[in-house]
Design a protein that fits this description.
Blueprint lengths: L5 E4 L3 H12 L4 E3 L6 H10 L2 E2 L3 H6 L3 E4 L6 H15 L4 E4 L5 H13 L4 E7 L10 E5 L4 H4 L7 E4 L6 H29 L3 H11 L1 H10 L4 H20 L5 H14 L17 H10 L2 H6 L1
Parallel strand pairs: 1-2, 1-4, 2-3, 4-5, 5-6, 7-8
Antiparallel strand pairs: 6-7
Helix pairs in contact: 1-2, 4-5, 7-10, 7-11, 7-12, 10-11
Amino acid sequence: MPLPSIAILMPGDMGHAVGRVLQEHGHRVLTCLAGRSSRTRGLAEEAGLEDAADLIALVSDVDMVLSILPPDRALAQAEAVAEAMGEAGQTPVYVDCNAISPDLTTKVGEVISAAGAPYIDGGIIGLAPGKGTGTRFYVSGPDTSSMEALDGKGIEVLTLGSEIGAASGLKMCYAGLTKGRWTLQTAVLLAAEQLGLSQALAREFEFSQQAEYKIMRERVPRLPADSERWIAEMEEIAATFAGAGVPPGFHEGAAEIFRVLARTPFAQETRETIDASRTLEEAVRVYAEHLPGRIETE
């Protein structure tokens, strides 16, 4: 029997790499590039993904849809796909793999279920296939067998039970640490810059926080390229924490740090065009120029 055909919406940094490895393992992988950027089109072409004319044609031709896109677009994407399912009279399995809160994945699931399609809650942890030690898809829901069948095909699939929201909740907790840590580092460096203490703090970090400072020097100058799409992710984490009775303020502040970085000229870079020669000191100086207080007084 032929392997299930899979749609990737959308083939960005993560999506195109997932599509590529699934195709390498024998699956037919499609996408829909109508209205997408030239960069997205280039990534899809690089991965060898088939381009369907529109969402109606796409859902008519696949067994499963993987939604992999910025979290602020997750619900609108589900609504568009649900409408296309109604037009096509086809209901492929829909897997939301986005960085969204348990509450939002429940809403997405309701939209998809109303269209008559099976729904799986998902969360991706790790770098894109080919860039790290492993890309892990955590999944939950009443029937996750469609995703479990993809385990070992360039990705690892781990199940978290039958509850919609469990996979998204785990992703929120994980990203709350990783991306939250990067924004905390950036905030500390910005405060030192504003206080005229950057050099003194750097000397102390080099003495007492060598491992952490090495991470800062490598990571913080590269954050603007992803900052705009990570704003909504921090807001989703804050909403997750609030729903769990945990104060959400830290990640609301993290969203504000990413807003600062999104205002810098470095935010126009992509992961392919990041200036690898930019130093931490250079980056923080520019970041500081785009703090709200600095902008208002200029």
